[in-house]
Amino acid sequence: LLRVQVMTLILGIFLLLAGTAACLFVLVGTTKQTWTSPLFIIGVIFLGLVILLAAFDLYIVRRNKPVMVFSSIGPLETIKEGAPGALRLLAPFLRVAAISLVIVALARPQVATTEADVFAEGMDMVLTLDLSTSMEAVDFSPPGHRRRTSRIQGAKEVIRKFVQQRSEDRLGLVVFAAEAFTQCPLSLDYSILVSILKSLKTGVIKDGTAIGNAIIVSINRLKDSDAKSKAIILITDGDDNASKISPVQAAQMARDLNIHVFTILVGKGGKVPYPVGPNIFGQMQYQKVEIRTNPELLKKIASISKGKFYRAVDKEALQEDFQDILDHMEKTRLMDPGRFTRHTEVFQLALLPALLALLLELAMRWTRYRRFP
Fold first, then answer.
1. Contact at 8 Å (CB) between 172 and 127?
2. pLDDT, tens digit, for every residue of 267-324?
3. Is residue 264 within 8 Å of 310, Cβ to Cβ?
4. Rounded to whole angstroms, how far apart are CA atoms 152 and 315?
5. Do the strands 230-236 and 309-312 form a parallel or antiparallel pair, or are they unpaired?
6. Which of 48, 162, 186, 200 lies in disulfide reach of 172, CB 3.0 to 4.6 Å?
7. HEC profile for 242-283?
C-alpha cells in the first residue's frame, strides 16, 4: 500500500508541474490568451489527472485502514507520548493557505496598465461589415468541408484574426443593413474591437443593403485623421437597395479625401443554401434561394476611390484578400490620443501555489504524518 501511495505521489507531482507549466506558457508566455490551444488543453488534462490520482489515493487509504491486534494494551501504556513536531503543525496551515489562494484565483485578479498618447507606425482603417439577413447564407465553407459556415460567421472569424494580428494600425468598425452605424471609432485598443465583434449578429438592424450610407459613415470616421494611409474595407454580399446617397457619389467623396475603398463581395452567388428554420427534430433546414449581387457596382466604387475589388468564396480567400489590402497600403506615423487601460489576467499566479500547498499537505497527511488509527 505504501509503495502504491509513493508512486501515486510522484506521478501526481509530475502531472501537476507539467500541466501547470503548459497552462502558464499559454496564459502568461504569450500576448494573446488562446484558450483553444492544444498545449493549454493538454495542461488542463494533466491537472485533471492530478485530481483523479488524489481521489484514487484517498479511496485506497479509506478502504485499507491499518489495524493492529494486541492481546494486551499493557505494552502501549509504557510508550511515552512523543512531540508532534513542527511539520505536523504545518499541515493545517497548508490547507488553509491552499483554500485561501483558490478563493483569490476564483476572484480573477487583474493587472491594469494605463497607456496615454500612444505613438505608433501604422495606418487608419475602418472595417465596414454588412449585417443584412442575406449574410446568413451558408455557402462560405471551403470545397469538401462538411461543416456549414455562414457568410457572417466566416467574415467575423477572419476579421477577428485580422484584428488580433495588428499591432500598430488604428482600426474602427461600422456595421450596416438598411442603415449604417459606428460600432467602434478608430483606436489601438483591439480588445474592445474584438469584444464588440463577437456580439454582432444579423436581424438587429432593419433589413436591407445601404452601401452608400455605410461608406459615408465610414468616411466620417476617417475624414479628421492625419494619417497618410486611410482605407475603408467594405464587406458585403448583396446589391445596394436602401441607400439615401448613391454609392458612386460616396466613393467620389472618399476619393476627394484620399480615402481608399476596398470592396469585398463574399459568397458564391446564384442560388445558395439559406436557413429557413428547424424541423420537428430540432435540426436546421436549408432551402436554395437566389441572392441578388452587383459586382459591377463594387468594382466601380473601388475604381473611383483608387481601391481594389475582391471576391471571396470562403474564409481562406477572404484572409488572402485582407493580406493583399495590407500590401497596397502605405504606412505613416500617427498618434492615438487619450488614455486607455489594458487588463491582464493573473489568477494563475495564485492557483499554482494553491495546488502545490494542497499537494504537500496531502503528502504529509498520507505518509510520514498520517494519523493512527
1. yes
2. 887 788 898 888 887 788 889 998 888 999 999 999 999 999 999 988 889 999 998 9
3. yes
4. 11
5. unpaired
6. 186
7. CCCCCHHHHHHHHHHCCCEEEEEEECCCCEEEEEEEECCCCC
